[in-house]
Amino acid sequence: MKHIKKLGAVISGLSAAVVPFAALAVMAPSAPISTLSGFQSFICNIVVGWLFTFLIILTVVFVLIAAFKYLTAAGDPEKVKSAGNTLVYAAVAVVIALFARGFPLIIESLFTTSGGVVC
């Protein structure tokens, strides 16, 4: 029963974090994907906007979970180690989010010579 309550709390917390994305789902792409600028705008919307936002929210959730694990560890080395692993997951989410933010610039530098900013 204790595990079911924890699972319910995690699911409700994650669903509350996902609700803002439902509002963004109604946005239509600004250009068709058949053109290069349409593909560029699609990459900007998906990679930079959605993925970056999702990973930052995920990072905050991981840090909060790690803090809760540290507070409730009561000196148990296994729980402290689990909290440390959760902080490592948060750091990985930040690194991936930063890579997602720079991804369009990397793609543009590979395919164009202008050197302008994509997004």
From TrEMBL:
Q: Which UniProt keywords apply?
A: Membrane, Transmembrane, Transmembrane helix
Question: Which chain regions cross the lipid bilayer?
Answer: 49-71, 83-107
Q: Kindly give the InterPro entries that the UniProt entry links to this protein.
A: T4SS_pilin
What is the protein name given in its UniProt record? Uncharacterized protein
